[in-house]
UniProtKB/TrEMBL annotation:
Annotated Basic and acidic residues bias: 258-273, 282-292
Gene3D superfamilies with a match to the protein in the record: P-loop containing nucleotide triphosphate hydrolases
Cytoplasm listed as a keyword: no
Family membership noted in the UniProt record: Belongs to the ABC transporter superfamily.
Any single Pfam family the record assigns to this protein: ABC_tran
Identification of the protein by name: Metal ABC transporter ATP-binding protein
Superkingdom in the source lineage: Bacteria
Gene Ontology terms, MF aspect: ATP binding
Organism field: Peteryoungia desertarenae
Classification via InterPro entries: AAA+_ATPase (IPR003593), ABC_transporter-like_ATP-bd (IPR003439), ABC_transporter-like_CS (IPR017871), Metal_Ion_Import_ABC (IPR050153), P-loop_NTPase (IPR027417)
Listed SUPFAM superfamilies: P-loop containing nucleoside triphosphate hydrolases
Region described as Disordered: spans on this chain: 258-292
Amino acid sequence: MSKLSRDLITPLVRLEGAGVKRGGRWLVRGVDFSVSKGEIVTLIGPNGSGKSTSAKMAIGVLQPDEGRVRREASFRVGYVPQKLAVDWTMPLTVRRLMTLTTSLTRQEIVLSLDAVGIGHLIDAEVQNLSGGEFQRALLARAIARKPDLLVLDEPVQGVDFSGEIALYELITSIRDKTGCGILMISHDLHVVMAATDTVICLNGHVCCRGTPAAVSQSPEYMRLFGAKAGQTLAIYNHQHDHTHLPDGRVQHADGSITDHCHPGDGHHHDHHDGHHRPNLSETRRGEGVGHA
Ligand SMILES: Nc1ncnc2c1ncn2[C@@H]1O[C@H](COP(=O)(O)OP(=O)(O)OP(=O)(O)O)[C@@H](O)[C@H]1O
């Protein structure tokens, strides 16, 4: 088999029925997804639904307590964390931020900062960066490692709408130029990067998965957000047939409550085709559908 065709079919990472248990409680269970080279996978789901936990299993920071995670031997990860454990009372320049955990040459630092459009901020204090500039600095830090898999935990937090579009364009161009796989955690339940190949919706398990809708093509969407937004963002509109209650029980569409999900519920692994197809339709940004 040629290297190229092997690369196309061998995922960089694959989670198979993976779960993490802490203090007698399953944080996530039955998580199945993979990321291949050049592929963009976006995890969505409410707060506490297991997005970060699943991403941490993918990169090996957390070991699964059940199921398994297969990783391509010796692949390199670039990780943009949701939070950075930094003492913000201490002055810190962008240059120093780049080398907090890895050693990089000056040229590697300059090239990475230039690649994300903030080469001029190399000596700026991190505390003074705007939300968008800070996210770019974190992105530069991750791509400096020349990763095969780039993991981005909420890359657009603290960034306004036009900054969000610009960041998503940047992430897509990094994928196009380097061919790395991207695993992204989205802060939004319904709006994802249009270039996403697969959306995985988590709620303690995989509730549903699919491609983002081509809403971005609709004239109404373009009128609302402009043609540029349409190229960058897409709506993932989906409806679940059950709700996970805070105490771990499950409320079904008919109002009944059980300890576990029914076999016919929107679990990916209970469906014959393996996928619970989302209902894709034209929805405006911010118009939510009920999330289970
Ligand atoms: N080490 C741990 N011990 C116990 N519980 C944990 C641990 N780490 C995470 N959790 C819990 O696991 C659940 C999933 O957390 P996780 O951070 O994966 O969710 P998330 O979907 O990324 O959330 P958010 O959108 O708020 O970032 C949460 O209820 C969290 O409190």
